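Standup notes, protein team

Yesterday: finished cleaning the Lepagella muris set.
Today: Transcriptional regulator structure.
Blockers: none.

Input for Transcriptional regulator:
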Amino acid sequence: MKELDPLLHSQLRLAVMSILMNVEEADFVYLKEKTSSTAGNLSVQLDKLSSAGYIAVEKGFVGKKPRTVCRVTDTGRKAFEEYVKDLRKLLNI
């Protein structure tokens, strides 16, 4: 049996990817609110997803306020779809 992608198997990373699969982009504040995570934990998990090439992170400013925007990459989309496919197989769905 194929092992599930450990990067996506984390609850918070899976939640972030699930959100990003359904929107064009999401900013840090939105992801933090939707996942009920702390800023520090979310930041660490976004870094892991970004390092794997699953998401693109763009940092900038709106006026004087910092803004971090995340988008799923083609690599991330493929990995997520593969994860769901493997999970379905595991559950015999």
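Follow-up from PR in the comments: The first strand starts at residue 26 and ends at 27.
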